[in-house]
């Protein structure tokens, strides 16, 4: 690790961990949505909305700390990129749940559960990785695995699109379901952006 002569603002580490823990909460709500009756989905969406607001608060706290700190643990643009990418994940997960409720989707297509399982695993890995930013150690396996999960998510997404366009669904239903699976794919991409940012930080700090 690079030797520093100046003290570093350490509260960023706790804030990144809190943001990632909140994403785990969001992924669990996505899992809960899968097994929920239609009548229970609005309440799950409300809890997801609250989690997304908590994520926004965490992001704003990081930005405020960034603007008021003279010394930062790593480059300012990387802190901004990491916080923004973590926030994007919550935004996409909340959007997916909201669309299911707004579109009154009775049954999600087979394969969505695989998408959500990938997101849940990526959320766990991200939450486990954030505390390691303090030392920049034991992070390589994290970004390698998240990139592997994103590739898996791409394959699942392509299979879902093929399923949606196989003639089983009417045109309106295809549009609704495609938007939902596309947003879940964007969440997987956002996890990869977080992992890539962490890799960039680790390389700079090595």
Describe what you observe in this structure.
The protein has 206 residues and is mainly alpha-helical. Helix content is 76%, strand content 0%. The chain has helices spanning 11-34, 41-68, 76-102, 112-129, 140-164, 171-205. The protein is globular and about 55 Å long. The model is unreliable at 1-7 (pLDDT under 50). This is DUF47 family protein. InterPro entries: PhoU-like_sf, Put_Phosphate_transp_reg, UPF0111_domain.
Q: How would you describe this structure in keywords?
A:
206 residues; mainly alpha; 6 helices; globular; Put_Phosphate_transp_reg; DUF47 family protein; PhoU-like_sf; UPF0111_domain
Count of alpha and pi helical runs: 6
Span of the ends, CA to CA: 5 Å
How many strand units? Answer: 0
Largest sheet geometry: none
Range of helix content: over 70%
Write down the secondary-structure element order. Answer: HHHHHH
Q: If you compute it from the alpha carbons, what radius of gyration comes out, rounded to the nearest whole angstrom?
A: 18 Å
Oligomeric form of this entry? Answer: single chain
Quote the average pLDDT.
Answer: 93
Instruction: Determine the structural class based on helices, strands and strand pairing.
Output: mainly alpha
Beta content: under 5%
């Amino acid at each position: 690790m690079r030797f520093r002569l100046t003290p570093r603002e350490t509260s960023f580490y706790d804030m990144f961990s809190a943001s990632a823990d909140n994403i785990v909460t969001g992924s669990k709500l996505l899992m809960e949505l899968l097994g929920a009756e239609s009548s229970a989905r609005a309440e799950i969406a409300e809890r997801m909305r609250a989690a997304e607001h908590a994520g926004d608060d965490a992001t704003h706290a990081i930005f405020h700390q960034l603007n008021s700190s003279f010394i930062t643990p790593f480059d300012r643009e990387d802190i901004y990129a990491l916080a923004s990418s973590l926030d994007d994940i919550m935004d996409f997960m909340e959007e997916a749940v909201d669309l299911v409720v707004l579109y009154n989707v009775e049954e999600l297509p087979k394969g969505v559960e695989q998408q959500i399982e990938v997101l849940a695993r990526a959320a766990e890995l991200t939450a486990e990785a954030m505390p390691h930013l303090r030392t920049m150690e034991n992070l390589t396996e994290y970004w390698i695995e998240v990139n592997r999960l994103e590739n898996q998510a791409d394959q699942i997404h392509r299979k879902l699109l093929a399923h949606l366009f196989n003639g089983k669904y009417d045109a309106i239903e295809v549009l609704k379901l495609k938007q939902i699976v596309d947003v879940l794919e964007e969440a997987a991409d956002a996890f990869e952006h977080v992992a890539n940012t962490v890799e960039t930080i680790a390389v700079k700090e090595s």
